[in-house]
Amino acid sequence: MADIKKIATRESYGNALKALGEEFDNVVVLDADLAGATKTGTFQKAFPDRHFDCGIAEANMMGVAAGIASTGKLVFASSFAMFAAGSAFEIVRNSICYPKLNVKIGATHAGISVGEDGATHQCLEDIGIMRTIPGMVIINPADHAEAMAAVEAAINYVGPVYMRFGRSAVPVINDYPEYKFEIGKGTVVKEGKDVTIIATGVCVDSA
């Protein structure tokens, strides 16, 4: 068990942004004074002119993201899930999803894996909140491989996307040659005969 590779999906998010930033020069990344925690700092170091810190003002950040996206840029707006989905809900709903703008929301520290940061930062309801918005696509990667593929899929999808990443390192379970990520499709991790267990995000390995 000791040799199992573990990576936090938020780390994968930062690495994917940097890789895609090299390929797409119209990618712009925003964060809410959390570049170190959301790992957008990886992109910031590589492309400082395309990274903007909007401060601890998530609703304002989403408004800025909407404005930049309206000029034709591919915008990634990043914060903790609690604030990306909670604090900024109205702006996400009306300024991003209603006009179908090409904004990708990178919501890190989702679920209860952020236990160290306290109850105010834990967020289980973000999936439910985002699912109520017409036109919003939700992606909840299970591991590093899926997170990397998910960010690439999001960048190739035209329209708003909510991506959900965990705080803690989790085992990499999708690093096999046949693995293929597709928005809206699940994969069978392990066959069985007695019950069907459906899981999403960082809970997949435990399930």
Which H/E pattern describes the elements?
EHEHHEHEHHEHEHEE
Spatial strand sequence of the major β-sheet: 3-2-4-5-7-6
Number of helices: 8
Kindly state the number of beta strands. Answer: 8
Poorly predicted tracts of residues: none
Secondary structure class reads alpha/beta
Roughly what percent helix? 25-40%
Shape: globular
Distance between the termini: 17 Å
Cα-atom radius of gyration: 16 Å
Kindly estimate the percentage of residues that lie in beta strands according to DSSP: 15-25%
Q: Tell me about the biggest sheet?
A: 6 strands, parallel
Mean pLDDT: 94
Q: Could you characterize the architecture of this molecule?
A:
The chain is α/β, with parallel strands linked by helices and 207 residues long. Helix content is 35%, strand content 16%. It is built from eight helices and eight strands; from the N terminus they run βαβααβαβααβαβαββ. It has helices at residues 9-23, 35-38, 41-46, 58-69, 81-87, 89-97, 126-131, 144-156, and strands spanning 6-8, 27-31, 51-53, 74-80, 103-108, 137-139, 161-164, 169-171. It has a six-stranded parallel β-sheet, with helices on both faces. A two-stranded antiparallel sheet has the order 1-8. Helix 8 links the parallel strand 6 and strand 7 (161-164). Helix 1 packs parallel to helix 8. The longest helix is centred in the N-terminal third of the chain and has 15 residues, at 9-23. It is globular and about 50 Å long. The model has no long low-confidence stretch (mean pLDDT 94).
